[in-house]
Automatic annotation (TrEMBL):
Alphabetized Pfam families for the sequence: GAF_2, HTH_30
InterPro entries, per database record: CdaR-like_regulators, GAF, GAF-like_dom_sf, PucR_C-HTH_dom, PucR_C-HTH_sf
Record's protein name: GAF domain-containing protein
Annotated PANTHER family: CARBOHYDRATE DIACID REGULATOR, DNA-BINDING TRANSCRIPTIONAL ACTIVATOR ADER
GAF domain residues: 28-178
Species in which this protein is naturally found: Amycolatopsis tolypomycina
Length: 562
């Protein structure tokens, strides 16, 4: 008997040794599992052997087998609380059945019972795989005929399972370590890439790059397209607008999905409480990761500094431009040597600055208008600034009408509201006179009911006596001859016959309409008209009253013109 047991004992020891080698080899998890099953099959000598593990979903599934005939058997999963495996896992001890199909000692699972028939499984022995006190799976030895399992077989397979559990644990740790190492390497590469992008962006700034250069470099590195929105830009689409608002509110990237499988990530460019714009990164959906988004956020810090620097330079230039414009206005006609030198330093030929434009809007302050005029001045080698409370621009222009219309068009588009732009050509460097004419003509336009448009004083030469200070004497003489008596009467008696007659002619000599407009009774209005007749003469309504109407209109315009 001793001689018969010796070869078997040697085979068992060899299998255990092979298991230890699997343990120390630290191979791939699937390789270790298959090696465990192969050696167990060889050791026990049953028809087939398989190993099942408990998954994250709490179900038991076969991970490796030796001697099975059905592919479906290996693909099956069952709850970890049923079958022989359920008993093994719950008790953490070996269990076996002589005939699985007819056994009443186990809870049967209908799906697995069908596979038992397919695989012709009859007798089954299961031992637990225990790692640090937790049953993580079971090792099974099965025969296709009824049989009983002896204590020696059970003890051998159980001992084998203990070795297998150690090998399994080490393989899992090895796989987790490799996974962690891969993730660490990926993270390190991402960090290196982000660092390289950041250094490159800093280099772009140090080399004198613009915000547009930064955005283009980001697009080259991240892929897709990067758009820089100005602080005044309105994003297209509700989703993108909401993403911009969220990025401004949180200070972090906000991502939204657009049409055609495109994602848009937005990072706000801010300096303190000041919103300077936003970066929009557009790329195919499901591309980009958190590291890329952090890179986008860090790029906004560089952009913020760059935009603030450009703004400071621009504001300094605008201030110098405004100061030089004021000096030319105050010193005109003529140019001093200092002004000529300062203009030359700004690449401006003052001898060609022959058109003065004055802009005015009822809804926008002159300082805000001036900011837009500075953009035009830089493009056209001119000067812009605020002079005597008015937004003013001096440009070289061959066609003053076309230039006035173009400046109006740009301001109208930028402001989104009405604006009046009036130009006057300056002769012999007399910018001050051109400024006065353009500014007073603009007031006349508003008084005439024209709050929006771009034109020149030549278009309104008919009203030149009103807005040209040098023709004030002519206007005084004309008004004295046409409505002088009415003005004197009103001045001495505190009446308003001039206003009454102005309303009378505005309403085309309709007494009822005039009375309603002045909130007077008709009889009261008639008495005022009679009083005017006493001053003007009884036949004032029958004679040619064109001079009277023109006098009333010019007086009204002059009173509204500063």
């Amino acid at each position: 008997m001793t001689s018969a047991a010796e070869p078997r004992r040697q085979r068992e020891l060899a299998s255990l040794y092979a298991t230890v080698k699997s343990l120390t080899a630290l191979g791939e998890l699937d390789d270790v599992l298959q090696s465990i099953v192969h050696h167990a099959h060889d050791l026990i000598g049953t028809d087939f052997t398989y190993l099942s593990l408990v998954g994250a979903d709490g179900r038991l599934s076969a991970r490796a087998s030796e001697g099975t005939i059905s592919a479906e058997f290996l693909a099956a999963t069952i709850p970890a609380t049923v079958g022989l495996g359920g008993k093994v896992l719950a008790s953490k001890s070996p269990h076996w059945v002589r005939d699985y199909a007819t056994s009443t000692r186990i809870r049967h699972d209908p799906d697995f019972d069908r596979l038992v028939v397919t695989e012709e499984l009859v007798a089954l022995l299961g031992v637990p795989l225990v790692i640090r006190g937790e049953a993580v799976g079971a090792l099974f030895a099965a025969d296709r005929s009824q049989r009983s399992f002896q204590a020696e077989e059970i003890a051998l397979l159980n001992a084998f399972a203990d070795h297998a559990a150690v090998a399994l644990d080490n393989a899992r740790l090895y796989e987790e370590s490799r996974t962690a190492l891969r993730e660490l390497r990926v993270a390190y590469r991402k960090i290196e890439r982000a660092q390289a992008i950041h250094e490159a962006l800093t280099g772009v700034v140090l080399d004198g790059g613009t915000p547009g250069d930064v955005a283009q470099h980001l697009a080259d590195q991240l892929g897709g397209a990067v758009t820089l929105l100005d602080r005044t830009d309105s994003p297209q689409g509700t989703d993108l607008a909401e993403a911009v608002a969220e990025a401004r509110r949180t200070g972090r990237c906000a991502t939204t999905s657009g049409d055609g499988g495109t994602d848009h990530s937005v990072a706000a460019v801010q300096a303190g409480d000041s919103y300077l714009g936003a970066l929009v990164w557009s790329r195919p959906s499901a591309t980009g990761d958190d590291t890329d988004l952090r890179t986008l956020e860090r790029a906004t810090h560089i952009l913020g500094l760059l935009i603030l620097k450009e703004r400071a330079v621009a504001e300094a230039g605008e201030r110098l431009s405004g100061e030089l414009l004021t000096e030319l206005m105050v010193g005109s006609p003529g140019i001093g040597p200092a002004q000529r030198a300062r203009a030359r330093a700004r690449a401006i030929d003052v001898d060609r600055l022959d058109l003065v434009l004055v802009a005015d809007s009822p809804a926008v302050a002159p300082a805000d208008l001036v900011r837009h005029l500075h953009d035009i001045a830089r493009e056209r080698a001119g000067l812009a600034g605020e002079h005597l409370g008015r937004a003013t621009l001096i440009l070289p222009a061959a066609d003053e009408e076309a230039t006035a219309a173009e400046v109006h068009k740009r301001l109208r588009r930028a402001l989104g509201g009405p604006v009046v732009v009036v130009g006057e050509r300056a002769g012999d460097h007399d910018w001050a006179r051109a400024f006065t004419l353009a500014g007073r003509c603009g007031a006349v336009l508003r008084a005439l009911g024209h709050p929006d448009g771009g034109t020149t004083t030549r278009r309104y030469a008919l009203y030149a006596m009103v807005f040209d200070p040098e023709r004030a004497g002519e206007l005084d003489r004309f008004l004295a001859g046409s409505i002088g008596g009415l003005l004197e009467y009103d001045r001495k008696r505190g009446t308003d016959l001039v206003g009454t007659l102005s309303a009378y002619y505005v309403h085309r000599a309709n007494v009822a309409a005039t009375a309603r407009a002045l909130h007077l009774h008709v009889n009261t209005l008639l008495k005022r008209l009679d009083r005017a007749g006493t001053v003007l003469g009884d036949g004032w309504r029958q004679e040619n009253d064109l001079e009277l109407q023109l006098g009333l209109r010019l007086h009204q315009l002059r009173s509204r013109t500063p």
